[in-house]
């Protein structure tokens, strides 16, 4: 439906953040630095959970919007098919109507006027015999015309409904895009603050204790988390997991 940038929710799991926040404070860094790191991680954990929940809601809304889009396409296609069928039926009905109209004109021409008795009897016999069948054909033409008129009205209503719903859908897509843009901005800010925590003395001390230097080295910048490129989210997760394992 639209391109957007997201940070993988798995990048920094709640378990990892909680584990780091509860790590022992007997590292070489000052106790104040360790406490500040814990508080920062706790705040990030809370906000990360909110962002994860927000992303789940946005994903659910996006799936719903896609279902609406699919339904609109299906309805538009059905309307187009009905339009084609209706045009064909109208042309066929017009051909029949023209035939019946011509037959009525011929009947009226033949069955009206003054004639000698013998010719009158012949004409009357023919006219009496053909009146009912011709009237039946005319009634059928009128019934077909009424059905076609009703189909036209239904098709116009269906097309108006699709147009109205498409406009509402387009507005919802625009609103959803704005929500995703706001989410991406918040998640970028969250990832940036998390990187600041990772580079803080308190976190660095926990990292060294856990022997996670390799896992936590050269984690890509925030922009890579947005696009899920180069395994950035997975690398960050491994880093935090390693620190967590070493802190317990």
3D structure, described in words:
Helices cover 83% and strands 0% of the residues. The chain is an all-alpha fold. The protein contains seven helices and no strands. The two termini are 45 Å apart. It has one domain. The radius of gyration is 39 Å and the shape is rod-shaped. α2 runs antiparallel to α3 (117-198). The model is unreliable at 1-27 and 226-230 (pLDDT under 50). It has helices spanning 14-21, 31-110, 117-198, 201-210, 213-216, 222-227, 232-247.
Please describe the topology of this protein.
Blueprint: H1 14-21, H2 31-110, H3 117-198, H4 201-210, H5 213-216, H6 222-227, H7 232-247
Helix pairs in contact: 1-2, 1-7, 2-3, 2-4, 4-7
Give short descriptive properties of this protein.
single chain, 248 residues, mainly alpha, 7 helices, 83% helix, 0% strand
Rounded to an integer, what's the Rg over CA atoms?
39 Å
Name the average pLDDT.
Answer: 78
The succession of helices and strands, N to C, reads HHHHHHH
Supply the helix-strand structural class. Answer: mainly alpha
Helix content class: over 70%
Number of strands: 0
Quaternary assembly: single chain
In total, the number of domains comes to 1
Low-pLDDT stretches are 1-27, 226-230
- Biggest sheet record: none
Q: What spatial form do the alpha-carbon principal axes imply?
A: rod-shaped
Strand content: under 5%
Short description:
By secondary structure, the chain is an all-alpha fold.
